Amino acid sequence: MNFSTKKIWSRATNRLYTIIYTKLKERSFGQGENRVKYMLFPRKKNSNGANVLAVCFPAFAGVGAKYNYVRTLSDVNIHKLYLLDDIGGKKDLGNYLIKEGVEENVRALIQWGINEYHPEKLIFFGSSKGGYASINFALDFENVEVCIAAPQYFLADYLTCEKKFDNLCAILEGDESDEAKEKLNNRLRRKIAESSLIPKNLYIHYSKNEHTYKEHIEDMLADLKNAGVNVHEDVGVYTNHIDLVYYFPSYLKSVVSHIVNS
């Protein structure tokens, strides 16, 4: 079996695994238009494991919305909370979990997990859109370790360039003025500069040969390092943003294992 065939087979298996567990375990937190869907996998009590809570923030799905990396960490015995980002947009759903009302519900859901399990460590992870959300929420909680891949940073620019106008409108809630877009572009930059709750460590995978590096990642890394974040970089060599899905899972698993065992 060649590498391309392995990649296709692995993605298909992951997708089927996620679909099955979504039907079994999906729940909602909150009510109304800002409710948040999620899946929770508590640590198995009668086997070896660590009291760690890992929270996954999802990427765009292409069509609809889906959970990410469910199978990737299936054999890691920690508490795992997978979030769905399905509010906003007509085809490729999502609002980066920062729409007013949604963001508050996500914070409350994570805090519920903290109150329920009293974890010794927190890990926030995600790729692309999920990478942005991972950093955003890591700045709201103490002692978070972050593991991400190729995040966006300047959201208004990105969503406009990718013609995701419905998603942009959901985040801005109808205010599509230049001022509102500029505020969104600098939203995470301001939060990094102003928050006192910076992540303990941030592990990031990316490729300098794909467009998000120069457009987003380079500036984001500079801001994170300037804020005192301990950044660990894993640099791949590929040109298409979507190819991160073939490289990030193994990196994610190794980082989570390192954090859990350290």
UniProtKB/TrEMBL annotation:
InterPro entries to which the protein is assigned, alphabetical: AB_hydrolase_fold (IPR029058)
The name this protein goes by in its record: Prolyl oligopeptidase family serine peptidase
